[in-house]
């Protein structure tokens, strides 16, 4: 039996490429998408290259879709091994902190923090039966002069802290699920308006780093894995210290 992975926001960008690369390694792909038409188009593309894939409707703005998906997968795919929390929104990437609208910050937190929190809670009972993994796609908690969108950075900082605390809790409670963050570096996608400079990576390259991390046999519980030429473990967790 092949391994099974659920990837949210996998109808495009790095999520789609992670799905393609894992699928071509024999994994069964549960492709999470909030838009049925775009999700089915992505499924068709993957099937055309021989990937075993199913569409799962998940909208991080609608927590009930997460609960419905978890119930269905628990029954149809109880073998689920990995959850990749890839779906997210950027917020207003141009606004300085004082210019950021409260509604924009709240919307970004709702998806990138609350939505992922609900996914972790809903899928941990399935994953713990399979000693599974949860991979949160993220960025370093600290911005830099090239990339510092306020709402997005705030939301990912919260996600990083949440990852650490879930990891600590899983370890102390002996819950056999490993959770960690994956930072593939700057990847050119529509989320950043296809930003392209010498610091940016292709979608294929960025996804490849994440796939290698998913397939490794090292324990990264509660850590944020950051790429500097390759994925490596940050010696100090970059949030909360």
UniProtKB/TrEMBL annotation:
<comment type="similarity">
    <text>Belongs to the short-chain dehydrogenases/reductases (SDR) family.</text>
</comment>
<dbReference type="Pfam" id="PF00106">
    <property type="entry name" value="adh_short"/>
</dbReference>
<keyword id="KW-0560">Oxidoreductase</keyword>
<protein>
    <submittedName>
        <fullName>Carbonyl reductase</fullName>
    </submittedName>
</protein>
<keyword id="KW-0521">NADP</keyword>
<dbReference type="GO" id="GO:0016491">
    <property type="term" value="F:oxidoreductase activity"/>
</dbReference>
<dbReference type="GO" id="GO:0016020">
    <property type="term" value="C:membrane"/>
</dbReference>
<dbReference type="InterPro" id="IPR036291">
    <property type="entry name" value="NAD(P)-bd_dom_sf"/>
</dbReference>
<dbReference type="InterPro" id="IPR002347">
    <property type="entry name" value="SDR_fam"/>
</dbReference>
């Amino acid at each position: 039996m092949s391994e099974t992975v659920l990837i949210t926001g996998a109808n495009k960008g790095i999520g789609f490429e992670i799905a393609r690369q894992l699928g071509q390694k024999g994994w069964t792909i549960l492709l999470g998408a909030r838009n049925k038409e775009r999700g089915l188009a992505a499924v068709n593309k993957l099937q055309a290259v021989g990937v075993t894939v199913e569409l799962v409707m998940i909208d991080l703005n609608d927590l009930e879709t997460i609960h419905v998906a978890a119930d269905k997968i628990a029954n149809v795919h109880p073998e689920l091994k990995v959850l990749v929390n890839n779906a997210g929104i950027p917020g207003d990437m141009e606004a300085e902190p004082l210019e950021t609208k409260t509604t924009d910050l709240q919307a970004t937190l709702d998806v990138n923090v609350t939505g992922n929190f609900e996914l972790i809670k809903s899928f941990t009972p399935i994953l713990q039966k399979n000693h599974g993994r949860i991979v949160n796609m993220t960025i370093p908690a600290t911005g830099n002069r090239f990339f510092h969108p306020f709402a997005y950075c705030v939301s990912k900082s919260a996600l990083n802290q949440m990852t650490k605390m879930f990891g600590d809790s899983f370890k102390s409670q002996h819950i056999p699920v490993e959770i960690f963050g994956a930072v593939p570096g700057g990847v050119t996608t529509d989320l950043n308006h296809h930003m392209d400079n010498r610091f940016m990576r292709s979608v294929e390259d960025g996804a490849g780093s994440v796939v290698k991390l998913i397939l490794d046999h090292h324990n990264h519980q509660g850590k944020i894995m950051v790429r500097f030429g390759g994925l490596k473990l940050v010696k100090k967790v970059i949030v909360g210290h």
